[in-house]
Amino acid sequence: MVTSKVDEKKLRFWKELYEKKSKFLKPNRISGSDLNTYFQDKYPTQNYDNEKFKKVVHLNSKEHFYENAGNINDIVAYTLNGDIYVGIDLKTGFFYIESEDVSKSIPIYDDLFITRGLSKEDLQNYVIVGQFLELKEL
Asked: What is the pLDDT of residue 66?
């Protein structure tokens, strides 16, 4: 999860990872439904039936290159420990996490990002691939 400004050094690092290893990668992205199942099985979730939050998730899914984003009814939302909010688009696998304490959401975001995998389109983006490979190697 990117939580601060990305400098040229980090971009070069991601590009080098991409150039070295992307040719060995194949699309491995799982469905939104499968990501949701994984999330529910791994984390102590409570349903968060908040239409305003689901709308935020939906609008973000549309802004982040998901022209085929589902509608608001394709969004499921959860809370963890009462202070972390997670929304998942069951159609696209897009996920969104909010927390006042970002340090609590980073490991969850990174876990979901790695678990979801990369799409054919993601594999064309050295920043996404670089982040993915960096997380996989740590």
From this structure: 52
- CA 35 to CA 114: how far, in whole Å? 10
E-assigned strand segments in 21-128: 46-47, 75-80, 84-89, 95-99
Low-confidence ranges of the chain (pLDDT < 50): none
Q: 74: which residues sit within 8 A by CB, 6+ positions away?
A: 32, 58, 89, 90, 91, 92
Sign of CA dihedral 114, 135, 2, 100: positive
pTM of the full structure: 0.90
What the block records as the tokens of 18 is: 């991409």
The pLDDT, as a whole number, for residue 68 is 58
Residues 6+ apart with CB under 8 A from 73: none
